[in-house]
Amino acid sequence: MTAGSIFSHPVGRFAPSPTGPLHFGSLVAAVGSYCIARRSGGLWRVRIEDLDQPRVVPGAAEEILDVLERLGFEWDGEVLYQSRRTGRYEEVLSDLERKGLVFACGCSRKEILASAPHPGEEGPVYPGTCRQGLSPGRPPRALRLRVPKGAVAFCDGVFGPVEQCLATRVGDFVLRRADGLFAYQLAVVVDDADSGVNQVVRGEDLLGSTPRQIYLHSCLDLPVPHYIHLPLALDSLGEKISKRHGDYGPLDPSVLWHALCFLGQKVPAELKGAPGAEVLAWGGMHFELCAVPARSERVERIP
Ligand code: GLU
Questions:
Q1: How many CB atoms lie within 10 A of CB 262?
Q2: CA–CA separation, 66 and 151 (whole Å)
Q3: Is the beta carbon of 49 within 6 A of some atom in ligand 1?
Q4: Bridge partners of residue 44, in order along the sequence
Q5: How far apart are CA 133 and CA 103, in angstroms?
Q6: Which of 15, 43, 102, 106 is deepest in the core (most CB within 10 A)?
Q7: Is 0.85 topped by the overall pTM?
Q8: Distance (Å) from CA 70 to ligand 1 centroid
Q9: Pairing of the two strands 226-230 and 199-203
Q10: Atom of ligand 1 nearest to the CA of 213
């Protein structure tokens, strides 16, 4: 299975989770996805990934959209909210169930950890306990997708060829969690396909999820997008800058200039104090994908 063809009408997107305010790390993904889409004459969409309601911070989605707008980003079409799309995810899950690709799993996290053959991509590899059916009296918890034995391969726009064997690195993965919520892996594939997204630009932390998403696209007979993963901005401890780090703001327009520099772009120094829309317009005309470093880096305090 391969992905990575060139599309004549690119459609990119930015998909923040509203678990806190926008930070420098997520802004790098916003700037990168925006400039790459615009540079190739494409559309750029925004989606709010608010499926995991327990983690959603009230007001964060509005704040993120407000900051994007104030920084000069212009998105195409309506903002998509995952929390309003559960009916669609149900439909897709039923389709996968009809194809015999889904099974109910009764294992707790603790049980999986205890019986996993080895550590995987993100925590333990699912050992296949409930693959042939639940043992009598065991209540179903999560719904999982059966994964094949072979490898999934694709060519990332920054990191190059990537190959992953889902069976040995992840195992049958969750589509619907024990708490009833749809998993990110399912939602992201359905949303990207339904919005015509064919250019997925995001942080390198999701590189390891991509083979699962490519496999899901193929199970659903959906076209596979072109994937471009960007280096992560790391803090002084070498950790991904996340919403926990509130000290990389406030987001004044110079942050866009910093984000472009972080992505290896030769953005003119005089644009540092320019309005956001001007910096983004420069990026939309001059962004060079081949200049993006394939390595995550520590950043000094921004701005
Ligand atoms: N919602 C994810 C995040 O905020 C991004 C998911 C994606 O781009 O596929 O990290």
A1: 23
A2: 41
A3: yes
A4: 12
A5: 7
A6: 15
A7: yes
A8: 21
A9: parallel
A10: 9
